[in-house]
Amino acid sequence: MSTLEIRSLACSRGDTRLFRDVSFAVAAGEWVGVRGANGSGKTTLLRCVAGLTRPDSGSVTWDGKSTSESGAQFRSAMLYAGHAAGIKDELSAAENLRDALALREAPPSDEALRESLGAVGLGRIRHIPARRLSAGQRRRIGMARLVLDPATLWILDEPLTALDSEGEAMFASLLERHLQRGGSALVATHHAIGARQAREVRLSA
Fold first, then answer.
1. Hey, what's the torsion of the CAs at 90, 110, 159, 71, to 10 degrees?
2. Average of pLDDT values for 168-173?
3. CB within 8 A of 158, min separation 6: which ones?
4. How many structural domains are present in the chain?
5. Domain residues for 63?
6. pLDDT tens digits, residue range 113-155?
7. For the domain that residue 109 is a member of, what is the CATH number?
8. In whole angstroms, what is the distance from residue 119 CA to residue 59 CA?
9. Rounded to the nearest 10 degrees, how much is the dihedral formed by the CA atoms of 202, 55, 57, 74?
10. Rounded distance, CA 39 to CA 42, Å?
């Protein structure tokens, strides 16, 4: 099973140093929580790990290989979900989910779409345009993607935003199932998540 390793990572925003000398690893079957005050660099850290932001220094490796060199191999193993839900208003929940998975070259069957959206409480409204859904319902579309996406590494930025207690419990269950299957996750969150946690990385503003 593959392991994500972060070594001596540092990143700045303009003249402001967000973090430095951040090192940790996430093995198969583990998840690591990234915590810190607003502005401490949690989102930037996740983007550096996902290859979306270039750090000032340090390295990120997956399965012993630099992610900057392994390229497509790492991207196929990773699912990155930013703080915003990333939902297209004019498309339905089912269409948003289908398009997101098509980009991952993992198009779902109609049955799989129905089952995944039903599992997160969107079954009856799966054909309603996303603009008519609440913030929490839009967030659940992303949870349905977690059910279907083949990625082994989840990198998630505040996945519990706008979710009610039922939604938070659903997410914890999905995360636990992912870990049991040998997956791993790096999660930036202000919330407690009811799933076993390997360790915590705390950034200071």
1. -100
2. 94
3. 83, 188, 189, 190
4. 1
5. 4-203
6. 999 999 999 999 999 999 999 999 999 999 999 999 999 999 9
7. 3.40.50.300
8. 38
9. 90
10. 8
